[in-house]
Amino acid sequence: MLHFSRWKTILIWLTVLAGILYAAPNLVPASTLASLPNWLPKRQLTLGLDLQGGSHILLQIDRQDLANERLESARDEVRTSLRDAQIGYTGLTGTANSIQVRIRDQGQIEAAKTALERLTQPISTGLFMSGSVTEMEMAEPEPGLLRFTLTEGGIDYRIAAALTQSIEVVGRRVNELGTTEPIIQRQGSDRIMVQVPGLQDPQRLKDILGQTAKLTFQMVDQSIPVEEAISGRPPAGSTVLYSTDEPRVPHLIENRIIVSG
Fold first, then answer.
1. Considering the entire predicted model, what is its pTM?
2. Using CA atoms, how far apart are residues 248 and 2, in angstroms rounded to an integer?
3. Is the terminal CB of the chain with fewer CB neighbours within 10 Å at N or C?
4. Given a cut of 90, is residue 145 above it in pLDDT?
5. Average pLDDT estimate for 10-21
């Protein structure tokens, strides 16, 4: 027969009592816990979707949409760079994952390559500048025709950056629901898994996550007065936008995005 000393017996019973005390809140309704003294344990065990139900959504980044957005931005960069360098061009178009432009003067081809070389500069992808990726590659399939192609590595870099940023945004929005410990995790290379235990209205979660929120910084086009752009035609690569206050004030804004988020 086992024999425990008195102090061991007391220690065992104190441990059991502490366990019961900390487990008890899980057996009491939340309304009852709110009326108990603050010095008592009130934290309840967070149950997952399998025990208390909730909402589960899987978000995915559209690879082609992201590529199209980057190509549109690159097209504006080509237009602006050649205009600033006073290089004549024609046929600035985009197809699939590439854009191309034809330089009118054969003698300005090298100058055009120099003006556009920043599009092919490697981008740092790692911590402390430990890695880089070439987002776009330049080729000259025929004399005077410059083609810029978005690389697979460049698209992957954009997706990874968008995924990291999206997780932060999703986290802030889900926290507005006031739920307990939502699960927001990266899944694969282009998806985000969102689990909200206790939320029985998945449509509400969809509505919150479906709200578009994007901030962009664009330069003001000062090449012509905004009144002239309104009465005539805005310069290529620029658009007239109006402020939201009253009275509405027009601004001539370049389409090229400097910073987006």
1. 0.59
2. 88
3. N
4. yes
5. 80
Q: Could you tell me if 189 and 249 lie in one domain?
A: no
Six token digits for residue 202: 């998945």
Same domain, 32 and 87: no
CA distances from 84 to 39, 78, 115, 242 (A): 70, 10, 9, 26
Q: Token digits for 119?
A: 């599009």
Which residue segment(s) compose the domain that 254 sits in?
216-260
Q: Do residues 100 and 142 touch, judged by C-beta distance below 8 A?
A: no
Which residues sit opposite 238 in a β-bridge?
Answer: 254
- What is the tens place of the pLDDT at every residue in 153-212? 888 888 888 888 888 888 888 777 766 678 888 888 888 888 887 777 777 777 777 665
Run of H or E residues at 259: strand 250-260
Out of 212, 233, 252, a domain closes at 212
| 10 lies in the same domain as 113 | no
**Distant-in-sequence, close-in-space partners of 31: CB < 8 Å, separation ≥ 6:** none
Please report, as a single letter, which amino acid is at residue 138: M
Report the candidate in 126, 161, 154, 124 with the shortest Cα–Cα distance to residue 138.
Answer: 154
DSSP string, 49-94: HHHH-EEEEEEE--HHHHHHHHHHHHHHHHHHHHHHTT--EEEEEE
CA distance linking residue 80 with residue 43, whole number of Å:
59
Domain identity same for 108 and 225: no
